[in-house]
# Entry
Amino acid sequence: MPVPAKLSIYAINLDRSVERWKLLTDRAQASGLDLVRVPAIDGRAISAEQRIHARPTLFRMRNGRTMLPGEYGCYQSHLAALRSFVESGAPAAVIVEDDVELIADLDAQAAAILDAVPQADLVKLLNHRNCGFLRKASSSQGHDIGRCLHGPLGSAACYLVTIAGARKLLEGLSVMSLPYDIALERGWALGIEAYTVRNNVLPLGALRSQTEIATSKQYGAVKIRNLSRLLTHGFRAADYLRRLAYALRVPFTS
# Structure
């Protein structure tokens, strides 16, 4: 698939997050980036009973806690971004959340990464951790691309996706049973070729601490603290083994 040198960047942004949007657009205009706003879905404005395409019981079992409104909104917002990208008909795009700090050549770096792994459906460009990284290839701009033995990697704040990958994600992620960042990287479950970079292509911005999803206190308040957590541990252990097999499925370089 020919990769254009200039990729559009789809940025998820809540209507009330005016400051975040201004920071993004100022940086995009200064850098010549093609920024497309995707209006985020406010999960706090949707009651639990109104959440469509979500399986709260399965979510509770898999995560050991109940689903938070911000998580639901985040998940649906990313699906909206994927749909917007697919409708454009472009071969590839970058999807970001509005707390990242855009860099001047983000589109060019993303295109170079896809040139290095043309079989990829998805490449995560930002993670919170990358333990057990196995290198598959390196881009012309110096980014190592591969998979990690350990995970979840954390964060869905910036990723590169092809149109074929976006279609697969929309199908495989149509029903929510995990937070989006965890669900996104499960290539073994989604039937996609998913990779990550060793070092983040761009950083999180100055507003990263002002979370729109949930605080650590809010996460802690909805945790299950009984024997039901055994089901969560079982799911995580099985998924970890599947991650290992997936990471080792393709040949890697030193």
